[in-house]
Amino acid sequence: MVHVYNCHPFSSQQIVQVEQEPGLICCGGGALFVVATGGCKVDAFSVEKEGCPLICRFATMGTVKSIQHSKMGDYLVTIEEKNSATYLRTYTNWRYQAEGKARVGVRLLGHLLRGASVRGGVQMEIIEIPLSERPVAVACCSVTGDLVVGCESTLVLFALRRQNQLSLNQSQQMLQSSGTNSQQSSSQSPGQIVGSNQNFLDFERSVILHLPKIKPKQVALCGRYVAVQAELEVLVLKLDTSSEPKTLEESSDTNKTDHLEDQADFQVLPRHQELLGDRAKDCDIPVSVEKTGLEDSTGQCTLSYVLFRRFTPDFFQGCSVEETQLHSLQLYPLFTSNQSESLEEPSCIFCFFSLPSAGYLYSVKGGVELLSAYQYPEKVLKAVLTDHLLHVITKSALQCFTVRCAALAARNEDPYIDTTMKACPPCSLEVCALRMQLFIGLRSVCVYGRHVILLSTADAEAPEEPERTPQRRGLELKEHTLLTGIFLAVGIDPATTPALESLLSRPFLSRKWTISSPKETSTAGHGWNLYVVDTVSPLTLYQEMVEYSERYAETNPQAQSLRHLLSEAHLLIRCSLLQTSEQQRSVEGDSALSLQTDTDGPAEKQTAGQTDRQELEEALRQNCAQLGDCFSRASQKDCHLALPYYRMSGLSVTEITARNRPLPSSPHSYGPGFLFYLKHFLFEETEQILSQEAADEVIDIFSKSEPSQLVSVCASPSLMNISPAQTLQILQHLEDKAGVSVPLTTTMATMMLRLDDMPQYTHLMERHAEMLLVYGFIEEPRLLLHGGGGGQHVQTRPTALTRQLAKSQPGLLVAAMVALHENNKVQLEQADHIFKALGCENCLQVDFWEAMLMASSQETLIQELLFRVASVYIDRVTNTTSDTHTNKPHTPSRRRPLKSADDLINSCSHYGALYPWLTVLNPAHTTSSHHQEALYKLQSLLCGPSLSVGSIMPLMERLSEETLWGFSLHLLCATRAGQYDISIEKLLDRCPQAIIAYANHQLQDKHMVLWWQKLLPELCNRTRAAADNSILLAALKETLVVVAMETSPTEFLELMPEDGTASYFLPHLLTCSQRHLRA
């Protein structure tokens, strides 16, 4: 479907004064090139100046059959005929003819001019390019300036090379010193494609493609993409260079060729076919690459199929089957503003081709897809694709269609499009036709910038036409009806305009229904005109579209046409913004090519460009606001698009709310798109805080539209300024209607807290058990914290309720934070920040870590928490030793922990029961309770299975072994490290009364041998030195009892000291012998 809007894309037109009837036209570089019918002369006119003055005129070497201009290199390429032979020639430095320089150099491809021709200065050059086949079509690449020539069965690609004066002189010296065989290769040395100030251009044959089953009618080239068009077929190929040698498959299907030759007397109609991407290689058109000898320097050339489209001949009004042929093939590049100037690869490449009845626009880079299909109201002779519009001509009108190039380019440039951040109308958006411009006998069209050049020739009727046959009268009546319908479709009634009615009735508007093959125009004196029609700027056309859309907005704000028209306006502005930088570079480049003096300096141009971009950006913001309004009341299918468009508009929530107030017809109805935007704004963490008036309006909106969302809305940090009394009334009404719920009760308690009504706050908080309150906080975490948003590095802050819970219900707060962490509602670092903001980093934060150790099952997190609590315990036992006998008031950091050491030992597997021998080392009531609690927790951690002792050893260096409790901690670390020998020695030195308890607990299983290998010898030696030490003697006696039970008599005898008293050891030896005999 094609929408039709009565927007006029044309601003003015002027007629180019041409002396002879034009036969061919083309444009580029700010110039219009006109070739007279059947002549050998080219006139160049300036389309950028009023009146299109003549720039220069130069003769060609033959009759021009085709002419093209290349933006890169600023040269012309022609297909000419002379003496029944066809030639391909290029014309470089043609602008120097404007200065009256008559000198022209003629040379062959690869043979640069030398001698006097070069020393005389720059001059126009005609380069003849020899070909083995007759050229049929030619095209230039607008990106690189390369050439593609379509012959009867081949495509030949030529690379543009540039030579400056210095390199040319060096080349001449090489030519003089080299032989004849090396002369041509030296002159064809490749150069770098740099700025347009180089004087000498040349071409180098790079690739030859053989297509035996297709006869080219038109060709196109853009970067690495090559397109060829036959009568009813289009094939797009991509050329790449590879360093790896690859054997190209030569497709020579001789059997099929012979079969077709046998059926030469039959007309075979091919079936319709469309193959995209990798499927295109399945077409029946083989392509082979001929080596040119340059593969060693440029790499092996490989090709891949991109697109193949074949049409079946069909009838169309006004043309026969033979005339149903493709035309207007284009490969169109589109650069975006974020690309650097040196980047030659376009962001997007589009392929356009057309039938008389329909046109097709494909994207061929980065995935092949059909963007748009254009259905024409009448037979189209030619079409030209541009950035913003598609210009088509019929025999009697110029019409413009919108294009979808910007929609695809925007998505390639910005990855945030089609997200909640940004939006853009889809590439599949239906196209629209704008108001047409009537002409007489249009024949050709070309476009440069905002200038559309039209060539019209009016066929003169016979002087005395005989009486029309009934068939002719019927055809003219049908034609009058068709044109009348076209005018009515764009909103123009011919019956109300006598001049237009008279124009439609004139005989020169009639067209023939059977068209013969093209023939030469008679020289008997037909009329012609060459028009330059200027299109309005995209911003002006956008403004007209906006004015046009206001008609729909007044009658039906939800009309599909309103949304479509605003989407068209959006793409116009977006395309201008995408191409602002590229267009400026293009205009500057084209201006540098001309010899005219520009009075405006670079600063003025830059300022004007910045002003234009600011106007475009402001227009885009206005358009996004209008699209947001459309989608805010759209159906559930599209209402989500209101969010990104409103975001792109830059409007505040207050402004958007004002735009979406209910209509008088439905005072309590808000659009689903607006509610979606509002919820997204409120539920995500933003720094924008609404005023009390705006916040109260938001609460009122949700109380009427979605009361179930009120709890989440009230918890939003953006609504900090809501009126608590008014909100409390709304929440109480909701509770009466929907029933009691934990999140609703907590929200009401928060309002009471803001009203300083502590009795009611306490009453509401005591409605539910603490565990149910924890579940309520999991359902709505923002009751406790703001600013998290689920991100790990986003700053969080506590709410007023959180601060109150820290004072009155710290256990509930810790349990809630643990539950939020375990349910991925808050990260550990964010929870730490909350407790630090509360000033509880040395109490509630440690309680939170201890509770996390009981709840978490993540090993990495557990080790992190164990290290943190161990660090805190070490810090506490270090800093509280001096406070043993002082009576300082209890500060918040001195608050009693939520869990004691015994609680942690009983409920957390990471805390182990204290070893029995620690009771001997731990002092009784010699330190403060805080110190005693921290010591027990640290000892319990060291007695547990999870803490890695090595991780806290650097921290243990802060603890001195002078105190008994410090010694116990170092002894625990040494024991956990397996240093039993050292531990036994230290324990005997500091606290021998604990040695038996230590040995009974630690020296078991594989460490049992230490009883007689380490402990017994140590005790013997120490009692020998201190025979009256009753503690050592008792320990020795206990040790001998264990040794006698674990060793044989022989081993026991070997362990007895040589100087020992026999009577002391004999009872133990007897016990050992009796046990051995019983065993």
Strand order, sheet with most strands: 7-8-9-11-10
Work out the number of β strands. Answer: 35
Major sheet characteristics: 5 strands, mixed
Range of strand content: 15-25%
In one word, what is the shape? elongated
The average pLDDT is 81
The level of helicity is 40-55%
Low-confidence stretches are 175-198, 246-264, 460-475, 506-525, 587-599, 882-893
Structural class: alpha+beta
How many helical stretches?
37
Measured distance between first and last alpha carbons = 104 Å
CA radius of gyration is 46 Å
Domain BLOC-2 complex member HPS3 N-terminal: 3-164, 192-473
Biased composition (Basic residues): 887-898
Pfam family, one: HPS3_N
Organism: Cyclopterus lumpus
Labels describing this entry:
five-stranded antiparallel sheet; 37 helices; about 1100 residues; alpha+beta; single chain
Overview of this protein structure:
This is HPS3 biogenesis of lysosomal organelles complex 2 subunit 1. Pfam families: HPS3_C (PF14763), HPS3_N (PF14761). This protein is α+β, with helices and mostly antiparallel strands. The protein is 40% helix and 20% strand. The protein contains 37 helices and 35 strands. The strands form nine sheets. A five-stranded mixed β-sheet has the order 7-8-9-11-10, with no helix packed on it. A hairpin with a 2-residue loop joins strand 16 and strand 17. Helix 6 crosses helix 10. The radius of gyration is 46 Å and the shape is elongated. The model is unreliable at 175-198, 246-264, 460-475, 506-525, 587-599 and 882-893 (pLDDT under 50).
